[in-house]
Amino acid sequence: MRILHLSDTHLHGDPSARHYDRIDTTAALRGLLARCEAITDLDAILHTGDASEDGSAESYRLLHEILDPFAAAKGAQLVVAMGNHDVSGVYGGTIALGDRGTAVQDRVVPLAGGWRAVVLDSSVPGAGYGHLDPEQLTWLREVLSEPAAAGTVLAVHHPPLVAATPLLRALDLDALEELAAVLEGSDVRLVLSGHYHHEMTGQIAGIPVHVVPGVTNVVDPVTAGEREQARALSGVSVVELGEGAPWVITSVLPHAGDPDGDPGDPVYDFGPEQVAAIVEAAGR
Fold first, then answer.
1. What is the DSSP secondary-structure string of the chain?
2. Which residue, of 122, 160, 185, 281, is most buried by count of CB atoms within 10 Å of its CB?
3. How far is CA 76 from CA 66, 70, 214, 249, 272, in A?
4. What is the pLDDT of residue 244?
């Protein structure tokens, strides 16, 4: 099983809109896919959320206008999870009805070779953090009670890992112990996530977790100190699953959505007061 993993495209319904008044998110996605043309033998393309910035039907149509032909040309199954900037009901009413209805986009997607993707909708309307309610976990337990022939990839926007920065820790996923209890002993081979906008690895219930950098920007969690910074870069990963541990490689590339900017200049640079305001508005 060979997967192209991307996340956090933050597309706008209005083509003139710019992310942080700077980034052309449509150009960023198209530019990244152009760099991915040489990738071969893909079975799936997994987009792990924040597909849209404004939650509009137009943004979701644009996403599929761009990704559907790319996936078809690669012979790959396209799978999209919902993130905190997405509006699940709009996506469900415009593009795809989830297994649990329009408003919650949980679903099971069969993949090649006996694999499957299980998608969890961790979005909370009007909030930035992630949540899995008891009904979702019950549904997940029932799905995983019947293993797939080859195994399962779990896709969820908010990573089931403690975040690396104070801002992201206020916007991370809750119910980790409950999720771990459901995943324990299951056929899930790998969890794929986005949201943090930087690469990260870890485990939940002994299962590897991979977080891909954002397409729209890439966060600096290491050298930013007490500040929260992101730069005009795009990230993408290729994941291979077979015998043994997952094989994951990641590229961080120059940004096609910021042609006149300097990649060395932050897209945003938040100090403690700005972080506190965001946590107050969108945190748990």
1. -EEEEE----B-SSTT--BTTTB-HHHHHHHHHHHTTT-----EEEE-S--BSS--HHHHHHHHHHHHHHHHHHT-EEEE---TTS-HHHHHHHT--BTTBSSS--EEEE-GGGEEEEEE----TT-SSB---HHHHHHHHHHHTS--SSEEEEEESS-SS--SSHHHHTTSB--HHHHHHHHTTSSEEEEEE-SSSS-EEEEETTEEEEEPPPSS-EEE-SS-TTSEEEESEEEEEEEE-SSSS-EEEEEEEE-TT-TTS-TTSEEEEE-HHHHHHHHHHH--
2. 122
3. 14, 9, 21, 18, 43
4. 92
35-85 pLDDT, tens digit each = 999 999 999 999 999 999 999 999 999 999 999 999 999 999 999 999 999
Taking the C-alpha atoms of residue 120 and residue 90, their distance in angstroms, rounded to an integer, is 16
